[in-house]
Amino acid sequence: MDDLIRRAAEVTPSGRQIAWQELEFTAFVHFGVNTFTDREWGEGTEDPAVFNPTELDARQWVSAFKDAGMKGVILTAKHHDGFCLWPSRFTEHSVKSSPWRAGKGDVVRELAEACHDAGLKLGLYLSPWDRHEPTYGDSPAYNEHFRNQLRELLTGYGKLYCLWFDGACGEGPNGKRQEYDWESYYELIRELQPQACISICGPDVRWCGNEAGHCRESEWSVVPGRQINAQDQDLGSRERIAGAAELVWYPSEVDVSIRPGWFYHASEDGQVKTLEHLLDIYYGAVGGNAVLLLNVPPDRRGLVHEVDTARLKELGDTLRRTWAHDVTKGAKATASEVRDKSDRFAPHNVLDGNPRTYWSPNEGVEQAWLGLDLGRPRTFDRACLQECIRVGQRVERFTLEVWSEGRWTEVARATTIGYKRLLRFPPVTAQSVRVNILGSRWCPTLAKVGLYERRWA
Ligand code: FUL
After folding, report:
1. I need a labelling partner for 439 at 20 to 30 A (CA). Which of 35, 101, 138, 331 fits?
2. Whose CA is nearest to atom 10 of ligand 1?
3. What is the DSSP letter of 273?
4. Phi, psi dihedrals of residue 430, rounded to the nearest 5°
5. Is residue 169 within 8 Å of residue 128, measured between CB atoms?
6. In which band, very low, low, confident or very high, does the pLDDT at 169 lie, cut at 50, 70 and 90?
């Protein structure tokens, strides 16, 4: 068992997984013929002429996403209806057959350019299920068609941070079931965009298991293989991984829409999620060791609707204000012990803002504490903790405690930390604070501890 726990502790992410995780908060854009037919799933028989946004402006989308604090965007280049938002050479069912920009438009290109100029990363959703393409269901022919389309996207639009595949698979027109040749898709992506994560139906990022924006209380990035059921509550506890033949780094992404549907429907303008709801989702997901992929669907003008842009700005403003005053600035850090008594693992590493440097006790020590002397009594009601995931995910249980009236008092308690754990609690005033790690695997690490003072209502 001890050997297994050490093995679990030492599973680490790939470079592309780290880069993806550090984006934290990203936008999903569902846009296509469904926007104009008021549907969620198209049939594949839609007339391309229905696709005619009057004011499409990808820069307006990207600026709204930036306001919210998002660092990446994933666009539905092709949804299940098969309509392509770029002028694919392999089908007529695309923007080139639509009146938009007189058939000369390319939504993927406009978004790629807007992202590039604004410093946001671009990812693409390409639905394997295609209800329009005649070869669909004729497995080898459609696999070839899908790879051709993938190649266009992988080579024509600069660097992509992610290819996002969902698992929906229906019957082809010939009554046959399409067998996707996933391995050949992955090979092509690795060859042409080695830095891109392959998400959901792919080896790099897993689905959190729901579309409501919920994360598990303990979201482990180390799980027993990729063939897990995304809906299981426990994917990574000691009990769950016991006896596992394989342990892999397979982190969680929370995809949820700002509106009830994935596509824009005017009838849902009054149902854009509230600021409180979005904050709950944000704290749960970004603060629960997942990446948040929040869908914001453009309307028939080709713009993010005013209600949504206002909400995104409110959210971004709130988050920016929340993290503005970190009371650990200038604090003095101590710990129950320091690995090898080495400066490399010293407590002050949690205060330097560098995700690569960290504090750690000796190897084999699973319980340890890290203390902060804030210099004078300070008031705070938010905390941000991060492990150094570059060396693995270890923390299983911890409390945040303050020294008050001669003893340590618990302020908050949680299980895993992973890339990031955010905590909200009633304002507390104290000079001495400690993170008390009650359980971990092999030895815990902490790369960051931040405590935030609220100076606004
Ligand atoms: C699902 C699709 O069927 C939905 O339409 C949406 O795109 C969602 C994000 O993934 O599998």
Report:
1. 331
2. 166
3. P
4. -165, 160
5. yes
6. confident
Find out whether the beta carbon of 308 lies less than 6 Å from any atom of ligand 1.
Answer: no
Report the distance separating Cα 125 and Cα 44, nearest Å: 17
263 lines ligand 1 (CB under 6 A): no
Q: What is the mean pLDDT of the chain?
A: 96
Is any ligand 1 atom within 6 A of the Cβ of residue 31?
A: no
**Is the model's pTM score more than 0.90?**
yes
Distance from Cα 169 to the centre of ligand 1, integer Å: 11
Ligand 1 atom closest to residue 30's alpha carbon, by position in its atom list? 7
Indicate the top mutation candidate among 41, 81, 164, 166 to test ligand 1's pocket, ranked by most ligand atoms within 8 A of CB: 166
The CATH number of the domain covering residues in 2-321: 3.20.20.80
302 has pLDDT over 70: yes
Q: Which distant-in-sequence residues (6+ apart) come within 8 Å of 12 by Cβ?
A: 249, 389, 390, 391, 392
Q: Which ligand 1 atom is at minimum distance from the Cα of 262?
A: 6
| 36 Cα–ligand 1 center, Å | 17
Q: Is the Cβ atom of 242 under 6 angstroms away from ligand 1?
A: no
Position 2 confidence tier, pLDDT thresholds 50, 70, 90: confident
26-43: average pLDDT: 98
Measuring from atom 3 of ligand 1, which residue has the nearest CA? 168
Domain positions in the chain are 2-321, 332-452
Amino acid code (one letter) for 381: D
Question: pLDDT-based confidence at 457, cuts 50/70/90?
Answer: low
Two tokens at 368? 């340890």
User: At the fourth CATH level, which superfamily is domain 332-452?
Assistant: Galactose-binding domain-like (2.60.120.260)
Q: Are 324 and 58 in contact (CB under 8 A)?
A: no
CA of 29 relative to ligand 1 center, distance in Å:
11
Domains 2-321 and 332-452 belong to one CATH topology: no
For 372-384, how does the pLDDT look when each residue is reduced to its tens digit (9 = 90+)? 999 999 999 999 9
pLDDT tens, 137-155?
999 999 999 999 999 999 9
pLDDT of residue 377: 97
Q: Rounded to the nearest whole angstrom, what is the distance from the C-alpha of residue 165 to the centroid of ligand 1?
A: 9
pLDDT band at 52 (very low <50, low <70, confident <90, very high): very high
Nearest to 221 by CA among 242, 198, 250: 250
Atom of ligand 1 nearest to the CA of 167: 11
Q: Report the pLDDT averaged over residues 301-329.
A: 98
Atom 4 of ligand 1: nearest residue by CA position: 262
**In angstroms, what is the span from residue 83 Cα to ligand 1's centroid?**
15
